[in-house]
Amino acid sequence: MMPQPSRLISLDAMRGFTIAAMIVANFPGNEEFVYFTLRHTKWNGLSFTDLIAPTFLFIVGVSIALAYAQKLDKGNPKGELYRKILIRSLKIFAVGMFLNLMPDFDFSNVRWTGTLHRIAIVFLVCAFIFMNTSWMQQAWIGAITLVTYWLVMTQIPSPDMGKVVLEPGQNLAAWFDRQYLPGRMWQGTWDPEGILSTFPSIVTGITGMLAGRWMLSRASPTEKVSYLMTAGLFTAAAGYFWGLTFPVNENLWTSSFVLVTSGFAALLLGSLYFLVDVLGHAGGTKPGVIFGANAITVYVLADIFALFFYRLKLGGHSINEHVVNGLIAIGIQPELASLTYALFFIGINFIPAYVLYKRKIFIKL
């Protein structure tokens, strides 16, 4: 039996702050005025915003390890766990579909992919892998998947182009989505959360599971920190060098992107674990813990609130337009005005998150 650590405040805070960052990136005051690092890179490269989704998937992997190791140690029947995992995955996927359809519910123009859809798939596959493999087997599955994806994307020509291309809409993943992905695609002829790129995104979850396995080990807290920091540094460095031949790219979720972002996530978790759980410096983590307690619920509420703050017109302008235009009128830089509104919107979402937390209501899909 693996020793079970007390609840990791650092992981809860990391989950919550990641969701908060996701909301800031998704809901700026004005799409035209956004700092570069708060935008997704158009193609190759890495911005702050590009780190958010893989960090959350990494956290999903860590959480799987912490939760299901305990359940298995208690002797919970695997059949019952499989059923609950499947149901939870379907719930998350269904909520993602609800958000995609909202507010018009035009089923003839539905998109079948998205952030929650990918989270649901990664959770489902990673949880099943965790319950049936050792950490070494998980590492091999991850490594083989990344190498295979690299070879597929760089050695198999796109049928449309007749050659290997890694450009937007012209690569093999885009062709594959056009052939087999139903419904509307985010970019018209391709989708950043399409079929082929989902495979390396599962590896992002596996890297989180490996980190979670180490957190469950009998190593001392200092050793755990050292491992996470060292592994994070070397993983990110390996991703950087791999990126010289297979560019770091979130849209394709390239193998180099997996390593760089997982390395960053491991460094972040190691730092937070050392500061918060080892040294006891929990000051400032409360907002993250509150958001993290109902992370997906907050994410869904943000989309619902956006209907009112971004679509409801008052005097010919939406609420976000009124706020941003007012801030610009008093001399604030447009990008800063847009970010200020996004932080205000975070505050709006914090209210229900705080109420749920204080009442000890934790909505688990």
TrEMBL record:
Annotated membrane-spanning segments are: 51-69, 115-132, 139-156, 194-215, 227-246, 252-276, 288-310, 339-357
Please name one Pfam family that this protein belongs to. HGSNAT_cat
Annotated InterPro entries: HGSNAT_cat
Occurrences of domain Heparan-alpha-glucosaminide N-acetyltransferase catalytic (ranges):
7-160
Highest taxon listed in the record's lineage? Bacteria
Which keywords describe this protein according to UniProt? Membrane, Transmembrane, Transmembrane helix
Q: What is this protein called?
A: DUF1624 domain-containing protein
Organismal lineage: Bacteria, Pseudomonadati, Bacteroidota, Cytophagia, Cytophagales
